[in-house]
Amino acid sequence: MRKETYFAHRAEDGREQPVFAHLIGTAELCALFASAFGAKEQGQLAGMAHDIGKYTDAFQRRLQGSTEHVDHSTAGAAECYKLRQPYAAFAVAGHHGGLPNGGSRGDTSDQATFLARMNRVSDGKLEPYDTWRQELTLPSAPLPQLAPSQAEGMFFTRMLYSCLVDADFLDTEEFMAGSPVPRGGGESMEILEQKLQAHIFGWFPPKGELNEQRCAILNRCIERGEAQKPGLFTLTVPTGGGKTVASLAFALRHAKAHGLRRVIYVVPYTSIIEQNAQVFRDILGAENVLEHHSGVLYDMENEADPAQIRLAKATENWDMPVVVTTAVQFFESLYACRSSKCRKLHNLANSVIIFDEAQMLPLPYLRPCVYAIAQLVKYYSVSAVLCTATQPALGPLFREFLPDKPMVELCPPHIYQSRIFRRVTFRREKMLDNRALSQKLNALPQVLCVVNLRKTAQEVFHLLDHDGAFHLSTLMYPAHRKAVLEEIKERLKHGLPCRVVSTSLIEAGVDADFPAVFREEAGLDSILQAAGRCNREGNRPAEESIVTIFQGEAPTPDLFRRNIGAGQTALAHSDRPDSPEAIARYFHELLDLTGKEGQDQDRILPLMEDPDICMPFQEVACRFRLIQSDTKTVYIPRGDGVQLAERLRQGERSRALFRALGQYAVSIHFKHFEALDRAGTLELLEDGSALLTDLSLYSEATGLTLEPESGKAFFL
């Protein structure tokens, strides 16, 4: 006997939302989102089908308080599957618990794979749900025009899934709240471009030769933004050429000219994000810029600040005109299977995506990353820009995945004079042991030395003259490093003694200007990043601003062997590491040394294309982890970290707390963690969090000591 009404949700105040109303609302939103990449009908189908499984007596009992388990996702997936709509079927199947692996026809109905769940329906093991047919009819939908490739089908499914889970959440959120919830917002691309033009107005006419060159680059980017159709671009701008504003100028003009919806910046380090995001806020207004990474905190609980709430909600689906995020967040979302990661993906469509410091795309996952960019350009109306001073020679790889879209350089070298941006002179040294290196550093009043190992950094630091000596490494918690960096900048500004020895963490995104830099042999990209800290403002003659490349006393670590080898090959053929020829040779050599398999170390693309494996969403998500680490986090209760640690001890567990604690966290290898624990220097909480209890093990100069018994650190 048919019930009068089947309900999808019950609000705290007792209001009930009919399933039919929820399906209509979700379908409308899902169709709107999917229309951004030409899949409106697919979106409507997925939205209408997703909660068909709530037309059951079991689910209605669940709404009334029953604790019985109810599978409400499989029914709609089965109906889509009957219509030969596999992409919608997978999206619906995963809208509650995540996209499943496809599995095989032989999977039994008690398994969690997609085909096992289809067997569950055919075996009659699902709660009867046919009542839905009395209220609605599923719409027809043409299948997307994709290449005959399972990998492309998986990518499309994930984008459709994103539309569905965002639409489902938004419709449910509005019903539960009783009214529309403020979200998204921000101004149009036209208005943002006007703000940028107002910001740069005073730059013209440019004063001085360097500014003339920067303005030439800027004008070229604006011109190309208007003239170029959406596609794949490179922006190769010398360090100091103003690429942050120039790339934003291209993106806004391009978006305005071609009806694109947003600008997304993908950068390798949070330190770069913080600087870029602040530049964008200064130009465009804070209300238009979402900074999304682990180090930024938006207060969801402060109801008096709607702007903060709007930004916090925008981290869920990126519904903002300008988004600045990390490469880890961006690429892991594109290969994820859970709704929390995938929900934002549909908002990538019709966007300009800038990959800042593109040479830092992760080499072990280079092929999957390039494949994802190619898919966005090919099917989802994305203009992708690889932005760097050292282009990583990705042309052949993009031609493999995107043969019909050639890479277009936005700012060829003839637009500017490269000699104007030459701010340093490179010198080569043979092997310098730590003592000889420290003597050379002590002979200079202000100098930066970048080495490959933390052990080397500490040993050289202890050999420096005490006055004005500083050490930087990841054994110092972020808030400590920031404070030290501020002191370093002040000393540099006022001409005080300042000798800094650091690991590579200082090479990108740190706005410090040294008159001299020493860099241990590394990849050419790392050497050039370190060189970017020398004469950064161009206030000294290049001939007096020396970057010394040397061989350290420590054996070459396996982690750096390939990059160092490629760098040595490039330098053997060029006296100038920053020449286009040396940079091209370096990246070609590096890619050759790495090989095709080394650029996809976990065989993600072969897995996606394997004809014997059906849509392995969960397996792909498990394999695609840009940060593969056997590390544990130790929180250091110093400064504001004392109060944060006490809140953790008292049982507070919130995203806001852990984000704040991140500024007082040090990540160390498991064996070092275990050594600290055995020595009784850690307090382990029930959730696995670890607090340092012996603060004598944390040095104001060098950070965390890893061998408590001897007081000396043991490093890899």
Description:
By secondary structure, the protein is α/β, with parallel strands linked by helices. 43% of the residues lie in helices and 14% in strands. The strands form 7 sheets. A 7-stranded parallel beta sheet has the order 6-7-5-8-9-4-10, with helices on both faces. Helix 1 packs antiparallel against helix 2, helix 5 packs across helix 7 and helix 17 packs across helix 18. The protein is globular and about 85 Å long. It starts with 6 loop residues before the first strand and ends in a 12-residue tail after the last strand. The C terminus is likely disordered.
Largest β sheet strand count, sense and barrel closure: 7 strands, parallel
Compute the CA-based radius of gyration.
28 Å
Provide the residue-averaged pLDDT.
91
Helix segment tally: 27
- Low-confidence spans: pLDDT under 50, at least 5 residues? 710-716
List strands and helices in order, with pairings.
Elements (H helix, E strand, L loop, with lengths): L6 E4 L5 E3 H16 L5 H10 L7 H7 L10 H9 L3 H8 L7 E3 L10 H9 L27 H28 L11 H12 L8 H19 L4 E5 L6 H16 L3 E6 L2 H15 L4 E4 L13 H12 L4 E5 H8 L4 H4 L8 E6 L9 H14 L3 E6 L6 H7 L6 E2 L15 E7 L2 H9 L3 E5 L3 H9 L6 E4 L5 H16 L4 E5 L13 E5 L3 H8 L14 E6 L6 H15 L7 H19 L5 H6 L4 E3 H7 L7 E5 L5 H9 L5 H7 L3 E5 H9 L3 E3 L5 E3 L5 E2 L3 E2 L12
Parallel strand pairs: 4-9, 4-10, 5-7, 5-8, 6-7, 8-9, 11-16, 12-14, 12-15, 13-14, 15-16
Antiparallel strand pairs: 1-2, 3-17, 18-19, 20-21, 22-23
Helix pairs in contact: 1-2, 1-7, 2-4, 2-5, 2-7, 4-5, 5-7, 8-10, 9-10, 17-18, 21-22
